[in-house]
């Protein structure tokens, strides 16, 4: 893996920055042939992100460490 996409959220409570509530989301994306890189490399912009749990057939795979991310360009 050479690249990942990172998004951060700064949280303010009562107009004061709250470091404890702020979060960072980092994920790496794969296609069957290559890795999708961030906009710095291929002008890849995110217009819609959907997250899915890992499915095993038609059932939710409860113990899976994977989170499926669908990105619409």
Can you give me a brief rundown of this structure?
One of its GO terms (molecular function) is methyltransferase activity. The chain has 73 residues and is mainly beta.
Classify the secondary structure makeup into a structural class. Answer: mainly beta
Query: On the 0-100 scale, what is the average pLDDT?
Result: 62
Give the helix tally: 1
H and E order: EEHEEEE
Number of domains: 1
Largest sheet: 2 strands, antiparallel
Report how far apart the termini are.
Answer: 21 Å
Characterise this structure.
With 73 residues, this protein is mainly beta. It has one domain (5-72). Helices cover 5% and strands 51% of the residues. It contains 1 helix and 6 strands. The protein has a two-stranded antiparallel ribbon with strand order 1-2. The longest helix is centred in the middle third of the chain and has 4 residues, at 39-42. The protein starts with a strand and ends with a strand.
Which labels suit this protein?
transferase, single chain, 73 residues, 5% helix, 51% strand, Class I SAM-dependent methyltransferase, two-stranded antiparallel sheet, mainly beta
List the helices and strands and how they pair.
Elements: E1 5-13, E2 16-27, H1 39-42, E3 48-53, E4 55-56, E5 59-60, E6 67-72
Antiparallel strand pairs: 1-2, 3-6, 4-5
């Amino acid at each position: 893996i050479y690249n990942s996409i990172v998004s951060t959220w700064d949280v303010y409570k009562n107009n004061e920055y709250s470091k404890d509530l702020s979060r960072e989301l980092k994920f790496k994306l794969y296609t069957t042939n290559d890795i999708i890189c961030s906009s710095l490399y291929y002008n890849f912009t995110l217009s819609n992100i959907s997250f899915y749990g890992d499915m095993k057939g038609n059932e939710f795979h409860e113990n899976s460490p994977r989170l499926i991310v669908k990105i619409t360009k």
